[in-house]
Amino acid sequence: MDNKGQVSIEAALAIGVVILVIIGLFNIWFSRLNLARDVGEAGEAKMTGILLAEGINNVYANGANFSIRLTENEINYTRLAEVKKISGGGMVLPFVIDSSKRLINITKNMSKTGGGSWTTQVSIIPSNIARVNPTSQYPETTILNNGTTIIVYANSSRISVVP
Predict the structure, then answer these.
(1) 74-129, pLDDT tens digit by residue?
(2) What pTM, to 2 d.p., does this model score?
(3) 159: which residues sit within 8 A by CB, 6+ positions away?
(4) How many CA atoms lie within 13 A of 21 on its CB side?
(5) Is there a contact between 158 and 94 (Cβ–Cβ < 8 Å)?
């Protein structure tokens, strides 16, 4: 009796099982990689919100005519926008400052990994906040205390204020 045919069928079956296992492991690895990227981007959004809140709180605490400018090294909107283009789900701009609730709301799109939207909030002290378009005197993301109101100089596509 010839056993050569039996061995080749068993070998083909074994190779098929190995291929299925490897494909399953790659699928798990890629989904974990995307989840890790989303968690990292969500952390970056939270840190950006904390930085913005610290700027607002410091300007408020230091009184009239005090201002802080958050440069592109501190708050990089271009980087946040690139993340959205590259991974298909990044930060949802604008960051929303809710004056009445004294919160900054940051939203992250998690649809790439099967989730919906992830939202976090950062507390701020003042409730009298306004957003104004940047000027040559007050460039992008300058925060100024004019004595009665905290003014955030930023484009409306990056930061919005809800009364």
Answers:
(1) 877 766 655 555 454 566 778 899 999 999 998 877 666 666 677 889 999 999 99
(2) 0.73
(3) 52, 94, 95, 96, 97, 131, 141, 152
(4) 6
(5) yes
Residue 127: both structure tokens together = 């409730």
- Least confidently predicted of 47-51, 57-61, 84-88, 116-120: 84-88
Q: How far apart, in whole angstroms, are the C-alpha atoms of residue 21 and residue 25?
A: 6
CB atoms within 10 A of CB 159: 22
CA distance 28 to 65: 54
Kindly give the pairing relationship between strand 129-132 and strand 150-153: parallel
Backbone conformation region of residue 102, classed left if phi is above 0, alpha if psi is from -120 to 50, else beta = left
**Amino acid at residue number 118:** W
18: left (phi over 0), alpha (psi -120 to 50) or beta: alpha
CA atoms within 13 A on the CB side of 77: 15
